[in-house]
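ok so heres the complex, two chains, lmk if somethin looks off
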Amino acid sequence: MSESNTILKLPDQRTATMPKRHYINNEDGLLSWLLTGDHKRIAMLYLMSITVFFFIGGAFAGLIRLELLTPQPDLVSSDTYNKLFTMHGIIMVFLFLVPSVPATIGNFLIPIMVGAKDLAFPKINLLSWYLYVIAGITILTALVLGGVDTGWTFTTPLSTHYLNTHVLTTAVGVFIAGFSSIFTGLNFIVTIHRMRAPGMTWFRMPLFCWAHYAASILMVLGTPVLAITLVLVALERVFGIGVFDPTKGGDPILFQHLFWFYSHPAVYIMILPGMGVISEVISTFSRKRVFGYTAVAFSSVAIALFGFFVWAHHMFIMGVSNYSALVFSLLTMLVAVPSAIKIFNWTFTLQKGSITFETPMLYAFGFMGLFTIGGLTGVFLGALGMDIQLTETYFIVAHFHFVMVGGMLMAFLAGVHFWWPKMTGRMYPESLSKLAAVTTFIGFNLTFLPQFIVGYLGMPRRYHSYPAEYQVLNVLSTAGATVLGVGYMLPVLYLAWSLKYGAIAGNNPWQATGLEWQIQSPPLTPNFIETPIVDYEAYDYEWLARKTEQEVTTVG
Amino acid sequence: MHEDHHEVLPQHLHHFATEEQQRETGTFGMWLFLLTEIMFFGGLFFAYLLFRNWYYDAFVAASNQLSIPLGAFNTVMLISSGFCMAVGVWAAEVRKQSLLVIMLILTTFFGLVFIGVKYVEYKEKWELHHIPGAHFDVSQFENPAAYGLKEKPLAPDMAEKTQVFFFLYFAMTGMHALHMIIGVGLLVWLILRARRGAFSSGYVAPIENFGLYWHFVDIVWLFLFPLLYLINRHPLH
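and the predicted structre for the whole thing:
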């Protein structure tokens, strides 16, 4: 292979055609999609649905930033502003981030990566999508009926006793979305335990599977607690009891303990699958096995475990005892360690690797930098003294957007671009996608770096007016948000374009390892013609080189 | 490795290599689902633990309102239904269709008796104005002597806390009863399929996995009964 700045190897476009049969043209008609058991079709259904909700949530973000252009509350009333940030949070967290990688890329790839024909429970997989859609419609109904303004955290007793907005409808929607998530996680755990092909041992699985396994443990154990918490909130609203109301002997802190017991693991549910994507992308575009496979695998599980021990760091100023705050602060410092281990391992994967800068890799680099900043600011916030100053300010907002958007959303985009040729058989246009990636990176930093500063200076979150001295930073942030919006629109447009006009990708355009790259693009419905037998380790580029030496691939 | 031409059972799904893999996967999935159910009920148990600690006297007075005989009878009903379910699973495994159907019917019967007794208990609470909400009446706890009860009277603010006990009582037993009603619905469906012979040729997975679910619902009650009915009978001195 000659010296080139890309590893992309496409079949000869003059003669290449799409495979005759694959999972998309296997069956025709709307019902064949709506009643499918095929994990790949369900993944595509999810991809379309979460994209719709992403842009709805993004529209709310746009309105928020528009209001914050000026210090005065001049665009919307305070109640409406409360509804804007609440709906932005609920839609982005529950209808976008939680299902993003697992339900789309995870659903598509996990069976293939372990060598199975489908997930363990295909019907439950489909049910999971329907629950997601019903949840989304319920939440949109709440929106159309007038919205909810509790903040995505539903804090009591505001949500139970002091608001007339559509808390109940929204709570029902989130409850249903929770079960969608639980069933996805359940499916993944059982599949990884029971459906691995002969020779595919635990430590030969791609790290993508380990990351999803850890996230699935969190989904399965944590989400039911959110469910029962929402049930209690709903019952309290309907019957007026005082389980969370101090005037009736209840305790609002009980709500917060129950809520954050899920919602902290939720952030790891959101990020772990993204980290799985990054492991795959960094390895492929450095042509090198992931450094410290075992450490990365075990750190995923460690994040899942420790993630359950730190919830009260969201409650430091809520009246928990000093001793309790101390313990949770210490545990929060500890939970940062496995995440840092991953960053170090990815960095050492890059070292002496043969690095190229295709779009997925650009997003992965963005992830590594931005997630590191976001994660480190999380450690600042874990220190009690810092948290008292910074909590409920824009510093927190910047922190979680760095990890969730700069981290998770970039990982999602990396994954979508990396596996787009596999899922659709087509390549996206590389120059345009690189432009979009860079635009996103610039827009992101312009949006959220000023928020760190303005938060440190004391601007509170969830307020639609602010002192005039913060305006410059807010204007920069809104300008960044506009650039970011452009950066996110571009992939929707060119990925759709590529479905018809993109180059034919072939089996393995990235020359990556992994079972998914040994089958056709797009895959056949049963994935494999015969059950694969695995006798090589993960990320074995030498095995790949030996295998492809003599290979002649024809497509079509 | 091509598919062998061994006998493919009718229930065999295409994405499993063997029927054994399919069966074990299904059971694993059910155990995992039950784990999520434990976490689901766990939130309520935690709330109960907390408020029992804070409002001990109110919880004593309120739990004395629950009928131990009825609760014990219900416990016997559930254990009996669990026993019948276990025999039913065995019957399916040894392919005794009529025994299986009888056992499933008995399981359903005991489950329905349980639900009936709960209805009686709930109705009594309604009549005494012990259902949390607008019509909750604390007078019985402030002045038990007037109702002919040998209880320690509670101060008004502690008497108010009996409402929290009843809220948790209805939430926990109600959630449990909801799971039982769902279970009874599934049982009816299983009975119909069993009568058609669906489980008489070695395909026992639905019966086994439903058995797991039913036993889980049983175990939840075995925790609820002592916590709600049996402990907290006497005020601390």
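quick notes: Chain A touches chain B at residues 111, 116-122, 124, 182, 186, 189-190, 193-195, 198, 220-225, 227-229, 231-232, 235, 239-243, 248-251, 254, 258, 526, 530-531, 533 (CB under 8 Å). thats all i got rn
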